[in-house]
Structures are given as C-alpha cells and as structure tokens.
Amino acid sequence: MNDTVVQAAGCVLWRFSPVSGDLEICLVHRPKYDDWSHPKGKLKRGEDPLAGALREVAEETGYTAEPGGELPAVHYAVAGRLKRVRYWAAQAVSGHFTPNPEVDRILWLSPAAARSRLTQFRDRDLVDALGRPSGHRERRA
C-alpha cells in the first residue's frame, strides 16, 4: 500500500424540516459510484480541512453551512492508498440544490432513514455521532 494518505473532508449536513421541524440529514447521490453518502471530497493542496469540508458541501449540495463540532474521522483504502476523511456536523443555512455531474440528487431524510440509505456502513456511524445537534429544540404542537 502506498504510504501517502489521501486527505479529504466532509460534513454531516443537517437542517430542521421546513414542514415538521424535525431533524433531517442531507445525503448525496453520486452517479459515478451509484452510491449515497455524506457530502465530502479531497482537500486541495494546503487547504484547511474545515474550509475544504464546507467547500465540498457547497459544491455538491448548493448549500452554505454553519459548522459545528468535529465528528470522528473515517479511514479506508481506495486504489491501494489509505484515505482519511475528517467530518464536521454542519447546519444548512441557505441554498438550493442543482444537479451536477458529480451529484445528481440529494435527499433530506430523518436520521433513521439516512442511516439505512447510506451505501457504506462506515458512514452510518457518523449519523449516530451527530446525535442531537446542540440547540435542537423539540417542536411542539
């Protein structure tokens, strides 16, 4: 295995549903891999990991995000190289999704639905790590 670790970053992007007020998590569909994942990507040379994570969210989802706490990093092998992806919780602030060559669809799902829709099991732990974002207030009828 090559000793060079590929550095990447992403976010578990969340919002409160505009309809119910419940917590929703954004997943992206990448047609190249036909998978569902959290928005993420490789860092540019010298790029700050958090800045890279927020850039990837904007590029893949069209949303700007307010970062929260750092979540556990994920490590896995790709083409014989180790890849390390650092993740942050991030609240979607504004934006609108437009399909692009890298991401053709997004879904806003409950944490349970997001966890089961994610293609890679390693990504499911990030939903659990997100837990209840600070400041989450229960919506009461």
Automatic annotation (TrEMBL):
Residues 4-132 form the Nudix hydrolase domain. The keyword Transport does not apply. GO terms for molecular function: hydrolase activity. Pfam families: NUDIX. Transmembrane segments: none annotated. The keyword rRNA-binding does not apply. It comes from the Bacteria. Keywords: Hydrolase. InterPro entries: NUDIX_hydrolase-like_dom_sf, NUDIX_hydrolase_CS, NUDIX_hydrolase_dom, Nudix_hydrolase_domain. This is NUDIX hydrolase.
